[in-house]
Amino acid sequence: MTLTTIAAIGGLAVLALAAAPFALPDSKTVERSAIIEAAPETLFPFLASSEGFQTFNPYKDTDPELSITFSGPRTGVGAAFAFEGKEGCGTQTITALEENHSVTMQIDLGAMGQPVQTFTLEPQADGTRVVWSVESQFGMNPIGRVFGLFLEGMLGPVYERGLDNLANVAADNA
Fold first, then answer.
1. What pLDDT, in 10s, does the model give residues 112-138?
2. Which residue in 9, 35, 62, 113 has a CA-CA distance of 20 to 30 Å to 166?
3. How many CA atoms does the CB half-sphere of 69 hold within 13 Å?
4. What's the confidence (pLDDT) of residue 143?
5. Which residues of the chain fall below pLDDT 50?
6. How far apart are CA 92 and CA 107, in angstroms?
7. pLDDT tens across 30-39, in order?
8. In the prediction, which pLDDT does 171 show?
9. CA distance readout (Å), 172 to 38, 47, 55, 103, 168
């Protein structure tokens, strides 16, 4: 094999590695749900308020030093908080809500992206089915697309813990 052939094969290998992330999905949704023994009217205020969110925030479980700074109105669209802790920093702002049914939040993680988080409340015979989902868009960012492969394993357990926390808060406030 000539040096030119080896260089060409090496160049093709590097090109294939660089292009591989673009074969991955450009978005990822992670979702968890739980039936919580409480009415949507009981759960909604915790979701529609930045202060209420802190009562079940699963990141506080693993980071007692998590710094939270509130801004905007106390509740509803525009209610926001900035966070800084061992797992990162950013902001979370309520951008839309439908009373006793859903709350949508924009998360800004700077260079790590701007995922959209939604809580949906569905009345059930034995309580409320709470669906916690987050959608991350990666666009043409190859690092983001690779990172998307790990989001389910990273966020799924955190959301499960958060839903358990919400169930406990609801029970304590029943």
1. 889 999 999 999 999 999 999 999 887
2. 113
3. 7
4. 74
5. 13, 16
6. 4
7. 999 999 999 9
8. 92
9. 11, 16, 11, 22, 6
119 burial type by CB count under 10 A (0-12 exposed, 13-18 middle, 19+ buried): buried
Q: What is the largest CA-CA distance in the chain?
A: 77
Identity (one letter) of the amino acid at 97? L
Q: Scanning the structure block, which residue is given the tokens 């959301």?
A: 159
Q: Which amino acid is at 130?
A: V
Q: CA-CA distance, 91 to 128, in Å (whole number)?
A: 28
DSSP strand pairing (80-85 vs 88-98): antiparallel
Under a CB-based contact definition with an 8 Å cutoff, are residues 127 and 37 in contact?
Answer: yes
Token pair belonging to 157:
């357990």
Amino acid at 98: E
Residue spans of beta strands (DSSP E) within the chain? 27-36, 67-71, 80-85, 88-98, 102-108, 116-124, 127-137
pLDDT of amino acid 92: 98
